Amino acid sequence: MKFDVVYTLLRPTEEFRHSLRSLKNLPHRNVWVVGTKPYWAKVNFIESKPISSEKIANTNHNWLKVARNSQISDPFIMMNDDFFINKPIESIEPEYLSSNLKFETYYKSLYPKSKYTQVIQNTSRRLYRLGITDAKSYELHTPMIIYKKDIIKALSGYDYFRYPINIRTVAGNLGNYGGKQVRDVKVYGTIKEKYRSLKNYQDSKFISTDDPAFLDEAGNYIKFKFKEVSKYDISSRNSLSL
Asked: What is the pLDDT of residues 134-158, one digit of tens each?
């Protein structure tokens, strides 16, 4: 069965254009964007303006809009603008990164005062209050099939503006998605994360990049691999409209 692919997009990016082009490798129904839509993107669109200074709070808000939209398939495929489907696949299987406790411990040890560490801690508290104590972390940089009811249960009646959460992890545990434990595919361009080089991921189903990596070797690989204009490009021009 084919499902809709859904992105939340806070600003237009060149990565998004190539992510759309990579969808040729995945059977799917429609493509939706919630947030901001570039002028060149031929996709279904739900406008959603930022209502918080916190990125993940805005993203939580957008995913709740998706879950409440009857036109979008249920389940749907959750995508990010920096996810690329590297090889033809027939479907997306459930996968997870690690235990949520291990994920939280890792970030607390390296980045104890970061905003994202706080989001992870919010996520753990939300899971506990929902009765889930032995949770998996679904914070992979890969597409994920997700059910609307799990997003609604995770966010409805919850103050995600003050305490934003990782919706993939909360929904995945609420729905008991299970899956296979895998290594993340994110390619980092910063010196600190240089050990995660592109060569480790060229043979994987998925690739993801941070901004420095997209301007470096990984980005060159993705731009060449997905250089052909897709049915989602209104214009073949390389410039993006803000």
From this structure: 999 999 999 999 999 999 999 999 9
| Domain membership of residue 145 as a residue range | 5-83+92-184
Tokens of 29: 């129904």
Tell me if 242 sits within 8 A of 121, measured CB to CB.
Answer: no
Asked whether the beta carbons of 133 and 178 are under 8 A apart, the reply is: no
Domain total of the chain = 1
What the block records as the tokens of 18 is 């190539």
- Residue 178, judged by CB atoms within 10 A of its CB (0-12, 13-18, 19+), counts as exposed
Please tell me whether residue 168 adopts helix, strand or coil conformation: helix
* 142 falls within a domain: yes
Q: Does 127 reside within a domain?
A: yes
Distance CA(145)–CA(63), nearest Å, equals 13
The distance in angstroms from the start CA to the end CA of the chain is 35
Which residue, chain included where needed, has tokens 């889930």?
A: 132
pLDDT tens sequence across 160-170: 999 999 999 99
77 in a domain, yes or no? yes
Region 24-38 average pLDDT: 96
Residue-wise burial string across 79-118, b where 16 or more C-beta atoms lie within 10 A, e elsewhere: bbbbbbbbeeeeebebbbbbebeebbeebeeeeeeeeebb
Burial 34-46 (b: 16+ CB within 10 A, else e): bbbbbebbebbeb
Q: Is residue 209 part of a domain?
A: no
